[in-house]
């Protein structure tokens, strides 16, 4: 029996889809962890885990003290 997708993966996949479709462009600032947690109705740790997954996929980059941004795509 298939299990439900974990919330952090759902958030990461949603944001990744927005990046791939161009809704979120390279250089766009992402919402804060707190804002994502509120928007998706999850704990901040879950939102943070989703951002970590996107960082591992090299779709986003963090800038200490400034926020998290959509990464530049290779070849652009």
From TrEMBL:
GO MF term list: DNA binding; DNA-binding transcription factor activity
The UniProt record lists the keyword Coiled coil: no
Keywords: DNA-binding, Transcription, Transcription regulation
HTH gntR-type domain boundaries: 5-73
Gene Ontology biological-process entries: negative regulation of DNA-templated transcription
Pfam families for this protein: GntR
Listed name of the protein: Transcriptional regulator, GntR family
């Amino acid at each position: 029996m298939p299990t439900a997708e974990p919330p952090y993966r759902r958030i990461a996949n949603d944001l990744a889809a927005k990046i791939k479709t161009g809704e979120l462009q390279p250089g766009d600032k992402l919402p804060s962890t707190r804002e994502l947690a509120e928007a998706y109705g999850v704990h901040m740790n879950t939102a943070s885990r989703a951002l970590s997954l996107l960082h591992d996929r090299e779709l986003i980059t963090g800038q200490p003290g400034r926020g998290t941004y959509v990464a530049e795509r290779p070849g652009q």
